[in-house]
Amino acid sequence: MKKKIFVLDTNVLMHDPSCLFRFEEHDLFIPMVVLEELDAAKKGTSEVSRNARQVSRFLDEMMRGKDHSQIEKGLALPTPQNKSNSIAVTTSNGNGTHVPVVSGRLFFQTRPPDASLPEILPGNKPDNSILLTALGLHTQHPARQITLVSKDINLRIKAAIVGVHTEDYSNDQVLDDLDLLYTGYSELPADFWQTHGEKMESWQDDRGRACYRVTGPSVKDWHVNQFLYLPDEVERGLELSVQGAGDPASLRVIRDYRSGKTPVWGIHAKNREQNFALNLLLDPEVDFVTLLGAAGTGKTLLTLAAGLAQTLDEPRYREIIMTRVTVPLGEDIGFLPGTEEEKMTPWMGALMDNLEVLTQTSNAGDWERAATNDLLSKRIKIRSLNFMRGRTFLNRFIIIDEAQNLTAKQMKTLITRCGPGSKMVCLGNLAQIDTPYLSETTSGLTYVVDRFRGWPHGGHVTLARGERSRLAAFASDVL
Fold first, then answer.
1. Which of 199, 204, 244, 463 could anchor a disulfide with 250, C-beta 3.0 to 4.6 Å?
2. How far is 435 from 326, CA to CA, in rounded Å?
3. Is there a single domain that holds both residue 70 and residue 181?
4. Does residue 2 surpass a pLDDT of 70?
5. Average pLDDT, stretch 75-96?
6. In this predicted structure, what is the pLDDT of residue 335?
7. What predicted TM-score, i.e. pTM, was given to this entire model?
């Protein structure tokens, strides 16, 4: 099979600088206009600017010591296993001997393309220059497949119109289909107790909660901190969480926060998924929680209630750190007046709305509410993501709202800010991604849900039902 030639658009390089090492044995081609756009984007403190600078460093490293004739012939691309200048990488062929790993080559545009743009694409826009370069490669290499790789949908549409094969960059895609994303819970068969009851070993933990040890073929798909429940029609409405995965697996009956004498800062869970979420949020052994759900499913309210209960009622955490992704991440908020917290206030309407719900108790007077609000202002700190780099949070309950707009790299930066005794909760709605070049399957929130699945100190729940009002529920269904 002949090597393909992939023409890279600027947005692919700025989205993932390591894409240079992800095309296996195929060749890459970078038009001169792409280098111009990288140069224009390198200044600034945003994630895009940092990525542009990183791409320039990679290219400089590969070009170091090369003369013009070597650049004309193409630079050897490092393999993902060895991102150095050398391509002397070997791998076993199964016979005990080692053979070289075939690597592609990187070419730069060094002369005008041998083609012309159709009259339907006038002007000298950068996108049209990239299309012209791809058309020129078709003329220069008629026997090889030329593919333009771009995150820009409109450019891909124009490329298809003029006859250039094009693809989206999908190497950073976590899942092929969002329906495959881990929900955090699973329904048990209706006859679960009949088929497993006699074989299950049972005991009580140190808090008096019933625990079971289950064996059988069904347990192989369970993950630690996954929730299990019986169908609604089964009389025994028991809900459990997996404490130990494998065969046998250990299960524990979870606490019911939906009714009775177990409110969390005055609120109860209104459905099964909210009950699962509160069990994770209040578990001291769980350090990282992700909650997905549409607007009105209770993500922020449940998280704030759990944070206040563990910060004010029991001194598990020193304070609550609340932050929200301001799109685009890294945008300078200095044009807004005031302190860091005052600058973040326009993005914190959801926090204020939910705090109002939690503090509006029927038997409290105005002065009691004022005292409560004053206490909360001292224990809840609003921080900007712009200034998270280099910080370490000790014994804090950290809430990141609108986390669907973070990339995988940004998510890693934030999670690694957690020090001993801290807990991080990431909230988001994958249907409301506002960041350019991110999708439901490439979001950093999707990435961490998939990667943290089964970790003993992490948990995830997808909230399915909205609980705002009958008007909001009807609008979600019909609009």
1. 244
2. 10
3. no
4. yes
5. 50
6. 52
7. 0.79
- In a shared domain, residues 445 and 299: yes
The range of the structural domain enclosing residue 146 comes to 5-82+102-167
Q: What is the mean pLDDT of residues 321-345?
A: 58
| Residue 78 lies inside a defined structural domain of this protein | yes
* Cα dist from 342 to 228, 335, 382, whole Å: 43, 12, 9
Indicate whether 72 and 133 sit together in one domain.
Answer: yes
Asked if the structure places residue 76 within a domain, the reply is: yes
Residues 41 and 190 in one domain: no
Short-list 49, 24, 464, 30, CA closest to 275:
464
Assess contact for 117 and 126: CB atoms under 8 A.
Answer: no
Could you tell me if residue 262 is inside a domain? no
Element (H, E) at 72: helix 68-73
Instruction: Give the count of domains, the chain.
Output: 3
422/475: higher pLDDT: 422
* Cα–Cα distance, 433 to 441 (Å, whole number): 11
CA distance 442 to 448: 11
In a shared domain, residues 206 and 318: no
**Segment 422-451, tens digit of pLDDT:** 999 999 999 888 887 788 988 999 999 999
